[in-house]
Write a structure and sequence with these properties.
The protein is α+β, with helices and mostly antiparallel strands and 354 residues long. It has eleven helices and ten strands. The strands form three sheets. It has a four-stranded mixed β-sheet with strand order 1-4-5-8, with helices on one face. Helix 8 packs antiparallel against helix 9 and helix 9 packs antiparallel against helix 11.
Length: 354
């Protein structure tokens, strides 16, 4: 487990308390049943607490607490399946911080830091993630193309779009149309079509800007997945300790003890990989490699954890009454986001010359 400073410990504890008291899983049920993408009042609270500006430099209205701090908050929100654009908007802010001009930073970062503006990434154009590859094109400052799976698209006012010649900023409005996609996790996803939409290029991030943005997306998504895996493990363990079958508490069966011990080991390995990724972002040391390892490990462990969680709950695990099924559904969507395990393991091998 990472060694946290006093500020990070306080931030983690505050996020944990807020998530449990103000945004438990039942809050997600209410958002889902109301047909909303997220609770706008909760998003406002996140902005007031400074979470929306954690990785934004102080000169642009953020706190610049670093990626480990943001990861701690995202992990706690992942535990309760809090529906919010925090991950997507933070990634958009990081893209501008990495590659934006001074004018672009001054225009967008203060709004993103306060939560007044929501941003998101619009990168992938097909059913599978292919890395920093796109067919969308720009001519005369107008961008055209279709992005198939865009997280938090309905709530976003700013899109960070990957085109064939770089990364661009496109505001929602002229030339932008959003078509809802209902995925199994019931969150805000959409297909976004750009038809000669006014676009500004991010020119200061170098040739590897798109991959740098994707690495941040992989690591921050892995942090959310870590919170989900921890919750499923804790909930399943508590269930086994109180559920009686064949006149015995389930946790007394040695076979189930072995399964939980294996899951605990996997969870700790996942935590190590995710925290190493967040540390890499803060230090700048081998970020691409750390991103591949963090997301690949998160994919594998959460896939197993969510499946085992449902199975160990028995038949009730498949019902809407129990929360564990929500985590399996959200897990499958996040596993496919920003690269599956096979893609990431292949990329890691290529980065190391294999």
């Amino acid at each position: 487990m990472a060694v946290l400073n006093e500020e990070q410990s306080m931030l983690r504890d505050m996020a944990r308390e807020w998530a449990v008291n103000e945004s438990p899983v039942n809050a997600w049920r209410k958002v889902r049943d109301a047909g909303l993408d997220f609770d706008a009042s909760k998003w406002t609270e996140m902005g007031q607490m400074g979470w929306t500006g954690i990785i934004v430099p102080e000169e642009f209205g953020g706190t610049d607490f670093g990626w480990m701090s943001l990861g701690l908050v995202v992990e706690e929100l992942g535990k309760t399946l809090t529906a919010s654009p925090l991950v997507a908007s933070s990634l958009a802010a990081s893209a501008i911080a990495l590659g934006g001009s001074q004018a672009q930073k001054e225009k967008y970062l203060p709004q993103l830091a306060s939560g007044e503006l929501i941003g998101t990434l619009a990168f992938d154009e097909g059913p599978r993630h292919r890395g920093a590859v796109a067919e969308a094109s720009v001519s005369g400052g107008k961008l055209s193309g279709t992005k198939s799976f865009v997280h938090e698209a309905n709530g976003a006012g700013l899109f960070v779009v990957l085109a064939s010649d770089g990364v661009y900023l496109v505001e929602k409005g002229e030339g932008v149309s959003v078509s809802d996609r209902e995925l199994v996790d019931r969150r805000d996803h959409a297909e976004v079509t750009f038809a000669s939409a006014p676009a500004e290029k991010l020119t200061d991030g170098g040739d590897n800007l798109a991959e740098a943005i994707l690495d941040r997306a992989r690591i921050l998504t892995a942090a959310e997945m870590l919170g989900m895996a921890q919750y499923v493990f804790d909930t399943t363990l508590a269930y086994l300790k109180q559920r009686v079958q064949f006149n015995q508490v389930l946790s007394t069966f040695q076979a189930l003890q072995h399964r939980m011990a294996g899951l605990y080991t996997d969870l700790e390995l996942m935590r190590t990989a995710v925290e190493a990724g967040l540390t890499a972002l803060d230090t700048g040391f081998k970020v691409p490699e750390a991103a591949c390892l963090a997301k690949a490990r998160a994919n594998d462990v959460l896939h197993l954890m969510s499946r085992e969680g449902v199975q160990l709950h028995g038949g009730v695990g498949m019902t809407d009454e129990y929360d564990v099924g929500f985590y399996l559904k959200r897990a499958r969507v996040l596993e496919a986001s920003w690269g599956g395990s096979g893609f990431l393991k292949d990329r890691h091998a290529r980065l190391n010359g294999y």
